[in-house]
Amino acid sequence: MASIAFNRFTLSVVPSLNAWFCKNMSKILFFSCAALLFITAGTAFAAPPDALAGSLPVYPTEYWTSDKDGWSVKTAPCGDALCAYLVDFKLKPTDPPGYQPIDEHNPDRNKRQDKLCGHQMMGGFHPSKSAGTTWDGGWIYDPDSGSTYDGKITIVDQNTVRLRGFIGISLLGRTLELHRQATLAKQCTDQAPPK
After folding, report:
1. Per-domain residue ranges for the chain?
2. CA-to-CA distance for 38 and 22, rounded, in angstroms?
3. Where is pLDDT greater, at 80 or 31?
4. CA-to-CA dists, residue 117 to 59, 76, 101, 167, angstroms
5. What is the pLDDT of residues 172-195, one digit of tens each?
6. I need a surface site. Which of 96, 125, 161, 169 has the fewest CB within 10 A?
7. Contact 123, 83 (CB under 8 A)
8. Helices 14-23 + 25-44 axis angle, to 10
9. Which residues, other chains included, contact 135 with Cβ-Cβ below 8 Å and sequence gap of 6+?
10. Tens digits of per-residue pLDDT, 85-122?
């Protein structure tokens, strides 16, 4: 056992300190993260910049497409926030003509037969108070898993944004690139209802 001598006292530190640290590591991490969240929340909910004070932001109504995943959303204001609704999606080669997918993974069993066409996929987004290039405070619904994630939108250029879905902190998540479309050739409401 290692020990440290202070004048007449001997203190056996290393093994007991190591055991205490290992035993309490989860508590240390929890309280450190909680303190960081409180500090961050305090600055995040500070008063808005003078440029935004007293005026409501403009929420655009536009079409955005994920080329990788083959779906499109229409953004629109909803209440005091920006939301997005599914208006087009990629069908599988085995899907019959006019097929419209349903929300089969929704955590609410009563909604699992709802069509995804027109379903709200994002909501609660506001312009970030810290920078003019992001929208945050929102949520993103993933119909493939039935999960809802925190969301952030980062503007890349006039016609490209990055949509980030994450749990808790932005580092743990997935990013999709969306491209602005002037119009859509078709929308899922234009498709024939399933037989």
Report:
1. 4-44, 62-190
2. 25
3. 80
4. 22, 15, 8, 25
5. 889 999 999 988 878 886 444 443
6. 96
7. yes
8. 60
9. 82, 125, 126, 127, 128, 152, 153
10. 999 988 888 989 888 899 999 999 999 999 999 999 99
